[in-house]
């Protein structure tokens, strides 16, 4: 089964769980951004996998409780680790990632047995919310640029306040204390550099792809021992 279809089936299960009662196929199609024909085909697939889904085309569908897709098993320590990690992401990154991690926890909660599901609501940890510095950077767009290996043009102020325009190849985001950093190859310097987000004055997301492989560039950067903890900002 392709990854994209697997994700769609997970999302379909999530929507069915959320509605609790009978939901029309057109409603499911609209929420998932697919055709009604795709919904009908995916319902048949889920039923064949053992999902207890009642209903039929033209009437609507309802998911009976108790179906696990796929079966998951976590220890209490693993559940606590997931919750603590989700709190950190929610309070220290950006809104898009915060929304994504809450959706992920909801999906996990939907396939956990009741005795473990309670661990998702256990207030064992408190992760404080960091004060995010002001920045023109949209971190969600930066992550997209990294996934698509696209260049970014920024105007960046160094420690003395002198500004320069750089084309960079973003390869990694860093979150240290309340600060955010972008690591990447700087075309101006011809080397890897780290840019503090609140020192970026302007930003443009370019259509140009940078060469090579992002993961390989990360390996090369780490091999040079240029880590955010050691070199926090570019000069």
TrEMBL record:
SUPFAM superfamilies xref list: Winged helix' DNA-binding domain
InterPro entries assigned to the protein according to its UniProt record, in alphabetical order: CBASS_pafABC_assoc_protein, HTH_11, WH-like_DNA-bd_sf, WH_DNA-bd_sf, WYL_dom
Name of the featured protein: YafY family transcriptional regulator
Organism: Rhizobium beringeri
Domain Helix-turn-helix type: start-end pairs: 8-62
Sequence ranges assigned to domain WYL in this UniProt record: 139-200
